[in-house]
Amino acid sequence: MTPTIHSETEETRYGSFLDWRLFARFLSYTLPYRNWIAAALIFLPVTALLQIAQPIVIKRAVDHHLTTGAMEGFQLLLLLFVALVLSQFAIAYMQSVVNNLLGQRVVRDLRQHLFSHLLFLDAGFFNRHTSGRLTNRITSDTEAVSQMVTSGLVNLVGDLLLLLGIAISMAWLAPGLSLVTLLAMPVIIAGTIFITRKMRLVQRQGRLYLARMAGRMTEEVEGSSVLRLFACQNHRKEQFGTINRQHYDSFLTSNFLEATQFSFIDAASTITIALLFWYGASLAEQGEVTIGTIVAFIDYIRRIFFPIRDLSGKFTTMQAAMTALERIFNLLDTPAAIRDPSHNHPLPAFQGEIRFNQVDFGYGNTLVIHNLSCTIAPGEKCAIVGPTGAGKTSLVKLINRIHEPLRGQVFIDNLPVSHYPLSTLRTLVGMVQQETFLFAGTIAQNINLNENRISRETIHAAASESGALAFIERLPNGFDTLLTERGGNLSAGERQLLGITRMFAFNPAILVMDEATSSVDTISERMIQDALKKLMQNRTALIIAHRLSTVQNCDRILVLVQGRIVESGTHTQLLEKNGVYAQLYALQFQSEGNDPCNGPGKNPENLVGIGGSPCPITPKPY
Amino acid sequence: MTTNPAPAASPRGFSQNWRYRLRHVIPHLKNHRHAFVVGFLLLALTNLSAASIPYLLKLTTETVTAGAGSKEILHLTLGLILLSVVNAVLRVRARTHIFGIGRTVEYELRQRYHAHLLELDAPFFDGERTGDLVARGNNDITAIRMFVGPGFLQVCNTIMVYATTLPVMVGLDTTLTLLVLAPFPIVLGGTRLLTGRLYALSRQVADSFGHMSSFVQETITGIAVIRTHAREEDWNRQFANEANAYYQANVHHARLQSLFNPLTTLSGSIGAILLLSLGGNEVAKGHITVGDFVAFSGYLAILIMPTVGFGWILTVMQRGLASLERVGRILDATPAKAYTPEIPPLPRDPKRWLGGITIKNLHFSYDKGPEILKNISLTIPPGAFIGLVGRVGSGKSTLLNCLARLYPVPPQKIWLDDQDLTDIDETDLRRNLAMAPQESFLFATTLRENLDPGNRGMDDQTLWSALNMVALDEEVSGFPQGLDSLLGERGITLSGGQRQRVALARLLLANPTILLLDDVFSNVDAKTEETILVNLKTLAGQRTILMVCHRVAALHHADHIHLLEAGEIRDSGNHAQLMASSSLYQSLHHQMARMEALQSLALPVNTPGSTP
Q1: Interface predicted TM-score (ipTM) of this complex, two decimals
Q2: Gap from B423 CA to chain A (nearest CA, Å)
Q3: Higher per-residue confidence, A377 vs B608
Q4: What predicted TM-score, i.e. pTM, was given to this entire model?
């Protein structure tokens, strides 16, 4: 009957029942809803009283009217009973609604807080954590906390209150008789808790087996070719069968325990009632106990079993919530390494000059960029060439503070980038990545990223400038075509064109790009090339270039090797210098002169075409 | 119950229709028919003993009110205790037994579903979403179990409880029975309505939870885009919408869900009220005894839960039917005739294949898509080392996919050792031909199991020698658990190059005659590639190797190279011949060489072997 959401994962473990440090911190999230909490708490004694009162009314009816036959006032008693039953219904309903809403509201806030915290964490953090785990923090862990509020904490207090109330009422009605019940109580409580705990453990194990089977099936669907190629179906079947059997065994045990618990409670209540009669009969003889009291006691005994059964479940809920809270707060306590400047600096009038001043950067212990200084003039188009691992991408990511230098500073128009508000800086500097990430949504949304200031007209104009318009118009719904996850229904070239269209739409003053490489077919390659040329106009542009034609279109070329600029200058200057760049160009020329498909020099070929790695290899003679 | 008509319902009427809808569970039900009978008997006994308890209570009450001797009461008390113990034992037996049948059917059905999934092939999986297939195997089969176990129990139980209790109640007082039971149809109808609606609402809760999760997941994957465009505020707002939609779904669900328990209690209490108001007068007038009154309230307590349960189980069974349909769709799917011998395969010579490959006029396209391979014809002699080269999208991988029979190819197109590919027995084929696909898929298990996925019990020495051939032995000996290291998220995360080499070792260990290598060195550095290539060359003569090349060195090693362009074989020959004759080959070759030259500018900073 509850929603089919399993907040339990392989990660779930059970910690302490109540950690005051975590709990106190969590309470701060519930403060805005203190009225709700007050309401939930006020209901508790009321429902308890309503439940305790019902058997007393019945007792009175039996003793004063049924056994005596005096029906005067019986109708009134009946009305009172009806009123009690109806109010219990109404209050139980309201209580449940309030608890549910309270849990969900508190957690909605917590969730939002977690999400916005996550958005501002730095790139290094995301490299260290898998997206699956982080998603669990925001969805499943918070759900476990909401369970604590909804069905754990408040009800726990309520159940305990009810049990206490019943005990008092029984003692008040017939101290001797309640003694019998109270003697039976510990046995029943201990038995129920024992069985329930065991059952939860077995069920948890069973759910893990189910999750494991799901994991295997996922893997087998994704790797179905490998299974076929290596004929491992039989082995996989056997292994799956083992887990399936374990799952079967766990739940068979759980079914047994469940039936036992149910029957134990049932039998225990019948036995208690039998004992009541036996003991009550002798008391009745002495006139200490009336038949009505015995009837009321039977009623009470039926009422105490549900709270007892639910108690141990609530402990488990609390434990799961505490573990979840610990992980949630750990995430919230991870500071964002890159933040807005602490106070406002006056922003300079925009020129577009980028300056690196003695910059060091690295990951862990390895330095990727060494003491690098260089200035890119306003409006200059500057290409960066160099082997994989030379630090090209790291270098450009220092400009819009995706990374922070270890030493030295980066300036835009003589103001350190760390003094710009982050959103200003990142609007100023546009970045095209090697592969364009697309979100599930329409083409238009993927171009303006939901920025309302970028109108449909602007999107259209941007697409027309980038050349993406042609393929967008061929799609069934044009700009409103829905893209599947990660734009799976577009080719690599089309995705890249959309990335460039995004740039035309956002129109940044400074352009930083990591040029697309191998995964693009010949036709798209030329379109992308044309689009990039247009995009660079009237901007300061820094391009990690893989194609010679891009390089030749630039005002200056920086050759980066092992985090150092080893050569810098125009195409002609560098050729004259006869260094690293000249060698590369020689290879290029030889190839392009002979290219039969595209004619000499027409098709810009890849400088770095087919992904690779830093390693010394002397090209073979040919 | 019939809200989801079977898609291919037989025209021959109601029972045929049901037989069709239940076609995948009926065999299981038939297998367990004896178990069902036993379960039914156990349940009958349980109910009989349960119905006796209120009757005994009535006797006791009457004895107490009559003020009879304590001896009689003691006997009755002992009788009650005995009866309740017997009832408890019977109930546990009955429930465990019947739920056990459901669990067994669940187990069998899941085994069957899983086995069927393993039989299905690439063209089928191309059209399905992984998550959906897994959900069918898990949640839907669980829903079918509810249909079989708890469904059977609840239906039988309800019928029996009424059958045993009603006569006794009627025997006590007919009018009172009718009046007291008057609200029960409402309870039943109400439960049915409520549970149906609740399931729909919890579906919505689960759906919006799913949306929220995938939104978060996507945000994390695309965080770089959000950051570089400073769109954090907007994403925060979008998340607020998602979280709010989830909250709203929960509110709707909670409003109804909260009714459930109080309503159950209330319907029990209404019986008590009716009993008090009607029965009270009867007792007072002396028409019935106080004992009858107590018994009546006991019977009411017995009847109310099965009635509520019956309403609930109708909904569960309806869901079970829907799930059965979803699972049935997969169980009915058949592999796309990749392997359909017209005649049963001949008993083959147990000796190994020679490894010759012939392809004649092969055209191929994926599921009505554009033609990827156009009129491919080639002959590869046994033991040759063949290179395939071409641009992205030229059809190299597709050609290997066809050769490996991952996708169906018409007969009379491909022959392996003069045997038509479509006629070769599956086991025979897999023993003699294996492929390392482009994305080196590894299982999240130990390295050992990845190297020997079919569990053929290879010894450590064999495994190490294969690791040595792919130049991975040194790195593996550095792993804390060596061959038994766990791979994947909860174990060692391998780099792309390491994954490729594990996949290659797996291929070598399968020891096939024909090896298809699809770009298996793209993340391996050139020096290591060279080492591995030299090792592979030692297999030459005994093994046919067909390899998609992306580096110069591999091309130099190949005996013969086929150059693909737009799905056709443009040129063929060895390296020297192609350099002399094919301008496209020259261009591709230079492109590769240039790239490698650029790499050589860097000094070796990584440990030899791989790049992440």
Answers
A1: 0.82
A2: 17
A3: A377
A4: 0.77
